[in-house]
Amino acid sequence: MLEQPMTNAVLSVSNLVTSFRTGGGWKSVVDGVSFDIGPKETVAVVGESGSGKSVTALSIMQLNAPGLSRVDGSVKLEGRELLTLSNADMRRIRGNEIAMIFQEPMTSLNPVLSIGFQIAEALVLHRRLSHAAAEAETIRLLEKVRIPAAKSRFHEYPHRFSGGMRQRVMIAMALACKPKLLIADEPTTALDVTIQAQILQLIKELQEEGEMSVLFITHDMGVVAEIADRTVVMYKGKAIETGATEDIFKNPAQPYTRSLLSAVPKLGSMRGETRPMRFPIFDRTTGEPDETVETPDTVKGAERPVLEVAGLTKRFEISSGLFSSVKSRIHAVENVSFDVRSGETLALVGESGCGKSTTGRAIMRLIEPSSGSVQLDGVDLLKLSANDLLERRKRMQMIFQDPFASLNPRMKIGTAIAEPLIINGVANRSEARDKVADLLLRVGLSADMANRFPHEFSGGQRQRICIARALALEPRLIVADEAVSALDVSVKAQVVNLMLELQARMGLAYLFISHDMAVIERVSHRVAVMYLGEIVEIGPRAAIFQNPQHPYTKRLLAAVPIADPARRLQKRSVPNEEVRSPVRSADYIPPVRQYREVSPGHAVMVWDAEWEKMGTSGQSV
Amino acid sequence: MIKYLITRILSVIPVVGVVTAVVFGLTYLSPGDPAAVLAGDYASPAQIEAIRDRLQLDAPVFSRYLVWLGNTLQGDLGMSLFSGQPVLSLILARAEPTITLAIAATLVALIVAVPLGLLAAQRPGTIADRAVLLFCVGGMSIPAFLIGYLLIFTFGVRLGWLPVQGFAGIDKGIPEVARHVLLPAIMLGFAQTALIGRVTRASAIEVLNQDFVRVARAKGLGETAIVVRHCLRLVAVPLVTVVGTSFASMLGGVVITETVFAIPGIGRLLVEAIQRIDIPVIQGVLLVSAVVYVVINLLVDLTYLVIDPRIKYT
């Protein structure tokens, strides 16, 4: 799989082996990886979690924990070997000739130093600029990464910036010394899709301007297709396939690459389908898909809906001052209405801060809604006393995004799954044990795993455990809050398939909260798009995806990266806009919204002129 | 912010109220008769009775407390039963040694503990780290008076470098103050050193594991710049809490250190007052300590505003 070595490579990695000290011995995490990056070239290293892609990046920078790690092989920057450099010499390379941006913009900036200081620091260090010159240059950089009012924001602290803006600051910091190589380690993974599109576009533009090479670490094939000239596929610490991105997408040589590519949820793959569909599961050794099984029609259209939400509103008050008067309110959820039938999946989609999770929690009454009604099987949950609510809650359960954080690390998973049965007095201990065994089998685990602790499982298995726990009380409704968002693509496919199977078998109603349009297209019967606490469009899945009406729905769909390298060279105009905040002044009266019926069941909020002005930008031009 | 300040300052009142009420109750319950102590060993019962009468010691404890409280609110802490001098001037006369000692001990502790803690945090699990931890555990477990006598024996008696007793006021010049205060400051600072070292180490390890430290390394910064510029301010947040609390408690009098080194500070004043059942003095010292404690804690909380821009009080 090795290509011809490049003669003019900016970065040349050959036979890189990184080992970590574990217990007594050394365990190699990166095992003989080689690749070159040419001038102005973008190379993506792609793989699932644990494939060693981030460790590869950190090894190039020599940022792995000293003493606990060992790097062998060769890393050459323009022909100069980096692995043998002294610490002091390596420090002159870092941030100067090779810069790096990381995944978590929220934690990557020092909270007690102003962003201006943090950018200027590199300039003072490497380019020996005076403080005044560094400040001027920093403001120029902030403008370059398109931070509005850059000059006035120099002295501000990171907590005043949104995630997307912080990632821009990180990029400005990385580009400060005009590096030859930028290493971007999952720079957009933590961001919303529309912000992700902006950041990818920005990196592309700055790369062209600065004649810089980019090493892009990601797990997202859509992002790879969008940005990379060449791609390195990593699996279990080895680079199993290297080549031009087009070739890899068109003719993947390795079965694993084939399975990885096929597992990527593709927007638009459901055209013509009426029901949700299982993801095909690809064998990693052969790259062949398993048999597709038709999903049965699960929706009980004739019955009364399991969940009827009407006029649900949740406002959080922000008060301050001597008499704690209300200064402003967060209109987190504003007059939201929908229903979900037995056996139906309603997807709630939107970007961070749009109120989708708050809606889920308000329905469960985990937070107390301000007004509205939530009827579960015809009983209004918001009017129930605490005791009656406990009784009713058995019928609805929740699955969260982070399966590890939602399992008690010191509780055996069997105990965790049995807990709802026992505290609700549904089963005694021995009955519960049998039930746990049954539930574990049902979610595709084995009964003898009940005695293990959460850390002994993988992320996908943990989410299965959380699903088993949610199923223990045989609920009618499951609120899945970003339940598959943190999982690798192949695992994501398996968990989604499991949820579909369980729906078919148990007639479950799902409220599927997610930001991932491609997964939503696969699993849902109906979709509701939320923006600033309100539903802007709701309708059958096909109608929302094939005939979106609201400008926001269109923008959301246009921002999803498409796993098709042919689109890479197209310039997209991406609006440089933040996800707006639902904080309103205390005297704000929400306007009465009108909805227009596009087709039966497909309703769209009538939008105002402001939206027209912004247009549906984000589409290819 | 103003509302916050007002609330915090007003919160002194209940704290002081509870502290003084409890102390008043305890001195009432404790054995011994102040009148008898005051009158001396050879006084007749009639003399003792006269003293008791003069000091109104027979009045119910509750009404005595109210009288004391009323006077206090007017700025009058009463007279010492023993010496007859105003309590406030007694306390002020003893304040200088205690304040000097508290500041010196805190400085000693900070100068030793912060670098040690940072050093250990940079190399967790190494021999250096273990040595620092051992030192910290030792500092907390070895009784302070033992260290005091070891210091006196070594530097005072054997080497004869430093005075082993007494205190020099600021009017004698700073070198003289330093000579007198160094040994007690080391003794007093020793336990603080242990505590501050541990807190610094734990907090610095946490900060050094943050993402932004990795970013700083990726920027090409050296370890010293990372610790000084990127870590120290965040480490300071828990540190200020610990240092502030221990400083405040030292200002309330450091009984053992003042006794070992025969320093006429507030701690000794309190001990003497307790021995003589001199209730107004005991009350006065505790009242001042409580107020100082609350004020210093308020200052600590205000320091957070300077250290961490994310913190806002409303």
From TrEMBL, chain B:
Subcellular location per the Swiss-Prot or TrEMBL entry? Cell membrane
Q: How does it sit in the membrane?
A: Multi-pass membrane protein
> Cell membrane: is it a keyword of this entry?
yes
For this UniProt record, give its keywords in alphabetical order, as a comma-separated list.
Answer: Cell membrane, Membrane, Transmembrane, Transmembrane helix, Transport
Q: Main site of residence?
A: membrane
Which Gene3D superfamilies is this protein grouped with? MetI-like (1.10.3720.10)
Q: Indicate what this protein is called per its UniProt record.
A: Peptide ABC transporter
The organism encoding this protein is: Sinorhizobium saheli
